[in-house]
Amino acid sequence: MQNRRDFLNMLCRGSILTGLAATTGILVYRSVKGGNCELGSSCTNCGKSDSCDLPEASLFRQTVWQLDPSKCIQCGRCAENCVMSPSAVKVTHVYAMCGYCDLCGGYLKPDTKNISTAAENQLCPTAAIKRKFVEDPFYQYTIDEPLCIGCAKCVKGCGAFGNGSLQLQVRHDRCVNCNECAIARDCPADAFSRVPANKPYLLQGIEAKPEERI
Amino acid sequence: MKQKIIIISAIILLLTLVAFMVKDFFFSKPDNTNPYKFELDDLRKGDTAKAVFTETLQFKTGLEEIHGIAIDLENQIYVAGKEGVEIFNSAGKTLYKINTRSTPQSISVNGNGYILLGIQDHIEIWNRDGKQIARWNSCGPEAVITSIAVQGNNVFAADAGQKVVYRYDKQGKLLNKIGLKDPATSVPGFIIPSPYFDLGISKDGNLWVVNPGRHSFEKYTFDGALLISWSKASMAMEGFCGCCNPSNFAFLNDSLFVTSEKGIERVKIYNTDGTFMAIVATPYQFEAGTKGLDLAVDKQNRILVLDPVKKLIRIFQQK
Amino acid sequence: MKKTLAIVFLVFLFAVQFMNSYAIQRFPKPEFESGYVQPETLLPNPRAEMLAILDIAVLIISLSVVSWLVIKKRNRNAVFWMSVFALAYFGFYREGCVCSIGSIQNVTLAIFDTSYLIPLSAIIFFMAPLVYTAFFGRTFCAAVCPFGAIQDLVAFSPQKLGSRLNAVLGVIPYIYLGLAVLYAATGTDFIICRYDPFVGIWRLDASFGMFIFGGILLVVGIFIARPYCRFLCPYGVLLNWTSRFSRKHITITPAECIQCRLCENSCPYDAIEMPVTTKNPEDKGTMARKLIFITILIPILMLAGGWVGSRLHEPLASVNAKVRLAKQILNPVTEKNQPETFEIEAFKSAGKQQSQAFAEASVVLHKFYIGSWILGGFIGLVFGGLIAGRMMTKHRTDYTPNKGTCLSCVRCVDYCPVKLPK
User: Which domain holds residue C228?
Assistant: First the structure.
């Protein structure tokens, strides 16, 4: 009696372990063989994923959350829905796209009467954009990141009147990389996706150059 | 007894949590209000007292895209668009259709019935019968000819790519360049962040050029000396909005400026010293994101607006 | 020759076209004369990927140490300190992501969606505790899982619930697991993460609702020990079943049970099974009749469950973003002064076709139809199993931990007077 039960136990245990091993095997096999080349924009769809030497093709990348500014509709949910407060999504200034305009749609309230740095003229609800004179007629705009709440008001203004150099991005020094991103879940534009951790930004207009790894 | 109460209340609490999860997951609706909404509606309306124009006519063209509009001395309407030019009478009836093979971005007509087309980096001259008369030399690999105007023997062309205005003679010989930055003559230089750069000749024969990055109009002599300028930068109705506006303009017969903007799509009228006079069309009359509303004014002082998104020629008249 | 010329000409034409569109879209950059240098756009890096390996190492080492402490050392104190470590590392340092409970969804999604590439850490966090459980029982729950650790700390006054209540509440995790798998497999949502009660505590930052949720669970946990583990945790279901067949398992007594009943009240989780001394063992006939009843009952319950599930597939699918969008396109908001939803706004600005949105939604709906048949059947099976378990009485002589529900916390060991000679 005791022996038979032990044998049955062993059989069940064996099948559980075999099942786990098989699942692991399939997942690992897929990661090694299947569609790795779809990762990242540098994929040339050459079809030879086995011999791909792009960094994306290496095994088992960790993934992080990022949003695609070209899909973003600036609905304001990024500011509200992140588990962090303030949100880990903040505006990122792509200087390479900026027109350095005096009348900046991202900096000034649309109904501003005269152009100045006065608080009542600023579009940003937390005054997180700083304006600095460069030379006639150009002004530089910088984001004071700790103040930014990711509301995308300036993104909308810059997109409507300017070149779209202000873009929302998940800032990875703040993002805790939840297994499921609370903003991604509620993003109406489906702009969020998991991206490989070695290419963690999806900015428009420049090739993202991350800081040196420490 | 006490133990039972504790257990029951704890379990009720636990089940409440489960119920909350179910409710939140299946029955909660995402919030559709944006506390950080970017409000443009007030600016879109403007002062209704100044909205003295009304749309009296609109007509479609046979072209796939439309880029530029011009009026000749006989009050006929020339529309340049994808691979061609279409000519209408003042009621919007097609008279001629020309196939130009390449796509002109800008158009002008001179008194002799010749059509001047700004095609990418050079100017071509065609006649109404669809014959190419001349093809002038390229202005440079980076050139984008966004506007052409003719005055007597002079042809002026605005190049958004190289931020300069060219003055040609009728044969296409380059006479001089206008508007290059020069501190000695206090010419400020054109700031052109996007490919919209317009010029025009006023009734009294002066050359006016938009400096969109400075939201200004600049008046030049034909030799390139800056005479006067006025600017009006504001998001509000009385000014030019955004980084670089106005995108296009035309002269009303009594020398007023008719201007069009992108960002906040609107057509307005200014007098020669830059005083805001009237609203021709408000943003509500255009699709959001419309860019390149080219303008023309005909003999009856009707304002013709080329709407590249709705692909219409829209005619506005004073009420 | 002519052909080549034609091709060259075509290529040239194409090139010219390309140049045209390029020139129009180009934005000439400002030309600075004052020597202004454009600043770089700073982009901070995410957590280094190497640290994921550290997480995996800590997990494996913790599992090994705890298993050794439970099975060999039988030392409650040491297990307690390991759970404090788990709380500190996986809880407060790693802020709860990725955890084994949530990894169910990653694995499910990776199985059903080949475009989702699962990180190695998610696979290992899912597999390793199960493998250890297959050999040593639920040592993961004892002192590696931060969820268990935090609830264990607050279990000041655990009350006995009775076997019936335990069995009924014990059904919730099965339903939770079924739903979690359904929603992960359809790529809809990770509901386990969405309703993670303690993640706000790990981060010391969360919405008010999340704090309340975690707080209430901890308050309940004072009287009902480890409520999440026993009556919610979907991963616990998998561990429970694996543990039933484990090779080794903690025993209350190191030698012979002397039936002293000292351990009877030691388990805060009601996981100690009393001896069942059936005076009148059931006769063969009753046994057979019960068995036949169960073998008929379970398929009927599964079919009924599946049918009910399939009736509910549309409400179940209504939380899917694609289905929701299709619904909103079909029934636009008609109330006055109601702006169009952000979803519709985004759909319009993306310029997608309505037919495409409907096609995507119907694919999802079909998945839900199949999924809810399976889910319903599974829930039917669970209820069938529950009934079967209550009907069948097992003969038992000693005080033993229930291998399924025992969390290997080693509390009971200290109550046993039998000691092995050192």
Answer: 53-277+401-415
CATH superfamily of B43-318: TolB, C-terminal domain (2.120.10.30)
* Two tokens, residue C4: 């080549």
Helix (H) or strand (E) holding B10, with range, is helix B2-27
Phi and psi, residue B169, nearest 5° = -95, 180
Domain match, C387 and C411 both: no
CB atoms within 10 A of CB A29: 10
Cα C170 to chain centroid distance, Å, stands at 16
Strands (E) located in chain A = 63-67, 89-93, 129-135, 138-143, 166-170, 192-196
Residue A131, SS3 per DSSP = strand
Asked if C254 and C167 sit in the same domain, the reply is yes
The per-residue pLDDT for range C43-95, each reduced to its tens digit, is 888 888 788 889 999 999 999 999 999 999 999 999 999 999 999 999 999 88
Q: Tell me if residue B221 falls in helix, strand or coil.
A: coil
Q: Do A99 and B213 touch (CB under 8 A)?
A: yes
ipTM of the predicted structure? Answer: 0.84
Output the CA torsion B210→A116→B185→B241 (10° steps).
0
Residue C33 within a domain: no
Would you call B90 exposed, middle or buried from its count of C-beta atoms within 10 A (0-12, 13-18, 19+)? middle
Closest partner residue to C119 (CB to CB) among A13, A63, A176 is: A63
* C219 to B13: CB separation less than 8 angstroms, yes or no: yes
- Smallest Cα distance from C211 to chain A, Å: 11
Q: Mark yes or no for CB contact B38/A123 under 8 Å.
A: yes
User: What size, in residues, is chain C?
Assistant: 422
For residues C259 and C406, membership in a common domain is answered with yes
Domain boundaries along the sequence of chain B: 43-318
Both C159 and C268 in one domain: the answer is yes
Same domain (yes/no): C297, C408: no
Per-residue pLDDT tens for C298-338? Answer: 999 999 999 999 999 999 999 999 999 999 888 876 665 66
